[in-house]
Amino acid sequence: MSDFAELLRRYRTARSLTQEELATRARITQKAVGALERGERRRPYPHTVRALADALGLDDDERARLVAAVPPPEASTAGHRTKVPAPVGDPANGRLPAPAAPVIGRDDQVDAIVGVLAEPSCSVLTLTGPGGVGKTTLALLVAAAAREHFPAGTVLVELADVRSAADVVPAIATALGVPDSGTADRVGAVASFLGNRELLLVLDNVEHVLPCAPAVATLVSVCPALTILATGRVPMRIRAEREMRVAPLDHDMSVRLFRERMSARGGTVADDQGDAPVIAQLCRHADGLPLALELAATAAARIGPRTLLQTMELPSDIAPHDLPVRQRSITATLDWSVRLLSEPARSLLARLSVCVGGFTWADAHAVSGLSAASATRALTELVEHSLVIRVVDGGGGDRFRLLEPVRQHSGERLEHGQADEARAGLAGAVLATARALVDDLHGSGQVTALHRLEAGLGNLRVTLDWLIEHDRADDATELLWLVWLHLAIRGHGREGSSWATRLNARPMTRQSRTRLLVAWAGLEHLAAPADACRHSREALELATGDDDEVLATQAATLAASTALFSQDLSLARELLGEANRRADALGDPYWIAHARMATTQIALLAGSAPAIEQAAREAERATRRVGSAFEVGAALNLRAVAAQLGDRNDEAAALLAEAIDLAVAAVNSWTLTYMLSTLAVVAVRLGDPDAGARLFGAWSAYADAHGVVEDFPTTQELVAGDIDRARRDLGAASFDVAWRSGREAGMAELVELARKVRDQAVR
Fold it and tell me: HTH cro/C1-type domain spans which residues (predicted)?
């Protein structure tokens, strides 16, 4: 074990920290800490040593000992290699520059890239990524870290100022110090000079000289010991090449880099949390691009983060003067990238700026104004140039997105007429997606449909706004009617209601008016049940007059369910009878299931134990036939309430644990509120008032966050009584602590708590 490894382990254990805790404090990975303590990684980067020292809280003497324990760079002594004299340009002669500032968030990538370069089969590795993501910086870190694998040294060839592909090989020759013999075969001359030297050649910025690729391929084919590390916004597309994409920084690393750069530029970075939300928002706007973060941090050091967030205008002279001209602003960086595109790709990039939060291939085709084949070629080119990033949505499909600085840059270059064409195309695509997913949303494919709709939420928002502003109320209403369930389940009910309010003042067809009222009732079902009941009864009257059985069934079922909150049992039963009759006649399993759940709710309100049990079991059977996670979870919650009333708390606990698992799968923040309150009652009655108090706290937080009434009339009395019981059992002070803990609990903690209550019940 090295001195550094032993010292690091000793400092960590003296402070009673685990490797995981130290990694979290230092903002590096646990794997990296383990490798350092085992001596597998012998020479950490200076910024890593500083981060570890800060995380350990070392005093000046301890810090100095830790820094001194890092072994100096040494020449390779690998037995399987033959030491070859280094050519001119070897880093030992000072020709390889170091990064100009501390590098944050790249340690694991450096290790991974060095590992790939060390593989015998790797002869060309290209780091690709968008402009400003830090490819050159990463390549310099890799070159320094990989020295021991390349006895003949490392040579950097900067190609940004090379104007044509024909000048690339001469630039390589110059960097290597190859004598100019006057021969026309420069590739041959370089190959003869290199011979069998095991050398790493770093070609920085190849994207604008891609026709040099055949010469590079020839060079590595005749020099088998040569390894090339290239950087570019696109790969070179040669058979010997391997590509690794350089991703933007994650949010935590972005914030850390922003604060470090702001401090380095003389800005005051407050230790309190006052500026934290502002800095977080600025980092989200930069979308993880180190160049954008550095420029924004420099501006924030001058005018303050809050002022910068208000203006979002960067002064023109903030960039460090040692940056290349093309990187002294995000605009210049992206202009450089866009100039390399074909015209169709350039046009598509501008039109894609209307998409918010990402897009599918269908969205891209819809906004492009191109044929399907041309749109595919253009999108492929944008992905290859790292201006569009491919991601995977929660539903398992392919999605793409523009980094936010790229989207802003592209939007500024979109002409007004093209913008309207692109937004109209996007509206068509969003509507088509909603129509295609509606059956899944109301069936066994619900979880996937919810994830796909949530992934497209940004485009749904801009589409609804655009349709309303352009007097397309019928289309906007159809879209809201198709997706209201998604909005409600995923906690966007207030936003959905605001669109319904805006649409209510617009002229539209009678069918659209009925759809609007149904959607509005659904969105306000748990937030404003009296209003929801009024909307659904009006929709029922319109649909009945139009003989629209689908809308009439939906309206009648929502009316029956929301009438509960008025506690007018006669009205609720009248509406329920119509809901069941219409749902059975229509034969739609989804609305039959909802009618059966409404039947259970009214049975609970009426208070007949045999009727409650029978209705709850029938509701569960109906929802399981549908197979939708949201409805099954809601029915299980009703069965749990019925079990509670029968003093079968063990059964209720098991039902609620399954219901909460389904809520997690669907990311259901809507009716989870009621599951938490029911489970809290079970916990108290099973003799765990602490768990009950925490669950009641979570119940209260979810009700506040999602604007839902705190409980159904059928369970209000249960909840109120058991809150008082938990407070008495724990004492007021302990109850308040547990309540606050529950309000702050995350989903994972709540799932664990539900399983704990279930396990207590079965013991």
Answer: 8-63
Q: What is the structure's pLDDT at 710?
A: 52
Do both 682 and 566 map to the same domain?
no
Instruction: List b or e across 643-658, with b for residues whose CB sees 16 or more CB atoms inside 10 angstroms.
Output: bbbeebbbbbbbbbbb
Q: Is residue 592 part of a domain?
A: no
Please compute, for residue 111, the number of CA atoms within 13 A of its CA located in the half-sphere on the CB side: 16
Q: Is 459 part of a structural domain of the chain?
A: no
Helix (H) or strand (E) holding 361: helix 361-368
The per-residue pLDDT for range 58-77, each reduced to its tens digit, is: 887 888 888 888 876 543 33
DSSP secondary structure letters along 370-413? S-HHHHHHHHHHHHHTTSSEEEE-TTS-EEEE--HHHHHHHHTT
Query: Residue 190 and residue 206: Cα distance in Å, rounded?
Result: 18
Q: What stretches in the chain show pLDDT beneath 50?
A: 74-94
Same domain, 504 and 563: yes
Question: What is the model's pLDDT at position 716?
Answer: 62
Q: Give the whole-angstrom CA distance, residue 120 versus residue 257.
A: 35
What is the C-alpha to C-alpha distance for residues 96 and 204, in angstroms, rounded to an integer? 12
**Torsion over CA of 145, 146, 149 and 150, rounded to 10 degrees?**
-120
- In a domain, residue 353? The reply is no
Position 563 scores a pLDDT of 87
Residue showing tokens 């009950």: 692
Assess contact for 691 and 681: CB atoms under 8 A. Answer: no
pTM above 0.90, yes or no: no
Q: Is residue 747 part of a domain?
A: yes
Question: For residue range 245-285, what is the model confidence (pLDDT) as tens digits?
Answer: 998 888 888 888 888 888 887 777 665 566 888 888 888 88
Q: Which domain holds residue 694?
A: 637-762
Asked if residue 108 and residue 218 are part of one domain, the reply reads yes
| Environment class of 463 (CB within 10 Å of its CB; exposed 0-12, middle 13-18, buried 19+) | buried
Same domain (yes/no): 231, 98: yes
Contact 480, 499 (CB under 8 A): yes
CB of 385 within 8 A of CB of 243? no
